[in-house]
Amino acid sequence: MSQQRRMGGQPMFILNEDSQRTEGEDAQTSNIAAGKAISEAVRTTLGPRGMDKMLVSDSGDVVITNDGATILEEMEIEHPAAQMIVEVAQTQEDEVGDGTTTASVLAGELLKQAEDLLDDDVHPTTIVEGYHEAAQLAQASIDAETLDADVDEETLLSVAESSMTGKGTGDVNAEKLAETVVGAVQHVDTDAGVVRDNITVRTQTGASSSATELVEGVLVDEEPGHENMPRSVDDAAIAVVDNDVDLKESSIDAEYNITEVDQLDQAIAAEEEELKGYVDKIEDVGAKVLFVTGDIADRAKAFLAKRGILAFESVGDDDAKSIASATGGSRAGAVEELEADDLGEADAVRVEKYDDDDVVFIEGGAAADAVTVFARGGTEHVTDELERALNDALDVVTAALDKGGVVPGAGAAEIAIAAHIRDEAASIEGRKQLAVEAFADAVDVLPRTLAANTGMDPIDALVDLRSEFDSEGRAGIISEGQTGIIGDPVEYGVLDPAAVKEEAVESATEAATMIVRIDDVIAAE
């Protein structure tokens, strides 16, 4: 569609004739509908009784998950407004690691409430102002709901378990995995805060999820360079070399004529002497374990095996970096540059076989500054979902320690937020009050969704939650058996990091208000 303006009686074309333009109510309606559709796509995954989604790509790859960020990332979303809701989930995931579904559902409901306000002729700017004021009230309510008690180990266990309950954890319950998660976070908790980057989740099929364990050190998928090399080394001095352990290539083109057997023997002897020189260097600096990013010559492997040195070749750059960092070593540019000061340390390096795969465990000593959650599962689908659940739990426990404590979960924080906003709305003048009240109604979607996913009637549950909150000061939906009950989440150990709630409110509000303000969409084709 071409867009034109007339100047002096002559048309002036502004937009390419292939451009498509949607204006006014049509643009708002289209954008809001797209945002709501994305929200509805993840809504049924919310809470401990949420359902999973199966996502199948064009190539037939299958992902089964109830992780909001993963669902939205895997979906092929084209509508620009819908992509803004996806960005909400990505921001939530990047900042606090969990609460992506909460943020997406809230953004969708804010858009739904905004649509009703627009139908009542409330100006988009008024809606935006009201939403931002309500968001500030919500943040104040979250601060008020944050528990005063110290974030101790018991609290962290509750946070981790709440995060994983209802997610794909195979045959092991969330309580047992929570102990692993909290142990990992506590191990890397320093005076400067939790060093989250020092925790890695590695997956391996071939056993049930209950075999998941915490390893004080790092794991890499490598196999020894030679069958006669040791498969375990204690008190391991570790060298990392960013080069080949092989014969040097001549820098000039040369052709050698060998006419005598002695000459051939001399050439072979010279090559062996060169390779032995490399092995001598490795042994002389005290290395017992060698990781090489390049190749190791077959004869060099044999020499290393005879010296009792465990060596690995073609190690990936990321693995080489993590090994050097975790063990306190440095990466040498070549064997001849290797010095004793470059070596890292570990209490033990061992190679374990899982089906047809070798996994190297680098444990203890300097390596214990980093920890690895070694997640097991019967199939790749199980281990993939378990990895997502563990990473979310690690992130929320970190957030609870580093970013401001915990609040009651199970919808209790949202009930308190909505009540606080409604109380304050009465003092706000003009039509902006309608937008503030609409924000409170939007927040109600979270406990209503929890109730529906738990098997309760969402309207009756919301009425009971409000009544319990008014009388007791705290009320949430506790999953019990095939349905749910109204109770105090703190007594049941259902806790969420305050940072997750704060980020969800902030990111959902920003996305919804940005979409509401759009009244013109110009798309090139």
Please explain how this structure is put together.
A hairpin with a 2-residue loop joins strand 15 and strand 16. Helix 2 packs antiparallel against helix 3 and helix 12 runs antiparallel to helix 13. The protein has 16 helices and 22 strands. The N and C termini lie close together (10 Å). The longest helix has 24 residues. It is elongated, with a radius of gyration of 30 Å. Strands 10, 11, 12, 13, 14, 15 and 16 form a 7-stranded mixed sheet that branches. It has 3 domains: 243 residues, Orthogonal Bundle (GROEL, domain 1); 96 residues, TCP-1-like chaperonin intermediate domain (GROEL, domain 2, 2-Layer Sandwich), CATH 3.30.260.10; 147 residues, 3-Layer(bba) Sandwich (GroEL). About 1% of the residues have low confidence. The protein is an alpha+beta fold.
**What composes the largest sheet?**
7 strands, mixed
**What percentage of the residues does DSSP assign to strands (E)?**
15-25%
Output the number of helix runs: 16
CATH H level of the largest domain: which superfamily? GroEL-like equatorial domain
Q: How large is the radius of gyration?
A: 30 Å
Span of the ends, CA to CA: 10 Å
Based on the coordinates given, report the CATH architecture of the largest domain.
Answer: Orthogonal Bundle
GO molecular function: ATP binding; ATP hydrolysis activity; ATP-dependent protein folding chaperone; unfolded protein binding
Keywords: ATP-binding, Chaperone, Nucleotide-binding
InterPro entries: Chaperone_TCP-1, Chaperonin_TCP-1_CS, Cpn60/GroEL/TCP-1, GroEL-like_apical_dom_sf, GROEL-like_equatorial_sf, TCP-1-like_intermed_sf, TCP-1_chaperonin, thermosome_alpha
Family: Belongs to the TCP-1 chaperonin family.
